[in-house]
Amino acid sequence: MKQYSLAIHGGAGAISRKKMTEEKSCAYRAALSDALAEAENILLRGGTALEAVEKAVMNMEDSPLFNAGKGAVYTHEGKHEMDAAIMCGKTLDAGAVSLISTIRNPIVLAKTILERSEHIFLAGEGAMEFAKQENIAFEDAAWFNTEFRFNSLQKAKMKQKIELDHNEREDKYGTVGAVALDQYGNLAAATSTGGMTNKRFGRIGDSPLIGIGTYANNKTCAISCTGKGEDFIRAMVAYDISCLMEYKGFSLEAASRFVVQSKLPVKSGGLIAVDSKGNIVMPFNSEGMYRASVSNSKAKEVFIFQP
User: Fold this and answer.
1) What per-residue confidence (pLDDT) applies to 165?
2) CB 242 within 8 A of CB 221
3) Mind telling me the catalytic residues?
4) How do residues 2-16 score in pLDDT, each as one tens digit?
5) 7-299 is classed in which CATH architecture?
6) Domain boundaries defined on the chain
């Protein structure tokens, strides 16, 4: 069997062990397993890493369990503003989108930007117009409405604060992402998010920012981050890990551990990454991170907390 590696995440943060019921744990593990299986099937059939990460993220965007696509959180105005990015490690081509609404799968729009636009990053009304021209699937705004996300917004407004993807409340789960190495030796990364509950003023986090929340380079690794976006932006997390590998000779594990544990504030979040040799790491400095991985040499693993 030819080499391949795949990892996905469904968000990181203060995911309480005490509040994690067996029913909730099973639901999230099943959702992660389904997304991983669909993406792995693409790799097994000879598909590309880029196709695999897109498929994994699409699967999670269609689930109300995650803060992306259908499960996106509400802004202060009671709307949804979604971000996504995807990158090819072979060509360094990338596509990113921000501040969009009613797009069923933001990651599909990001990939279409990568493939069909002379630009890399589109936002707001312009991105929506491009999506219409490219026949990207839309949904009515009501399709994105979920009761527990709406309740989260009301609670955040009462407290007059902006909420992270994951905090002490059990109903806060977030950003999704995927990284892959295919049998052709190419890497890819993808990330999608609904941002922060009660966010205002067109806030953009790290997820759609190439080199910060999403990055892929065949010379080094592919990375998708999750957590408090402002902290990841300040630390330039994804590209910093790649640079430590390319210019300092760090291993993927050493570079990721250094950045997550030494450069990010405690409880900021985590990331998933795969290198050009197929090694997978999924470090985080928060209480938990929804994550799963599989490769040609290692069976599927699904985790929420530290093993």
Assistant:
1) 44
2) yes
3) 175
4) 999 999 999 998 688
5) 4-Layer Sandwich (3.60)
6) 7-299
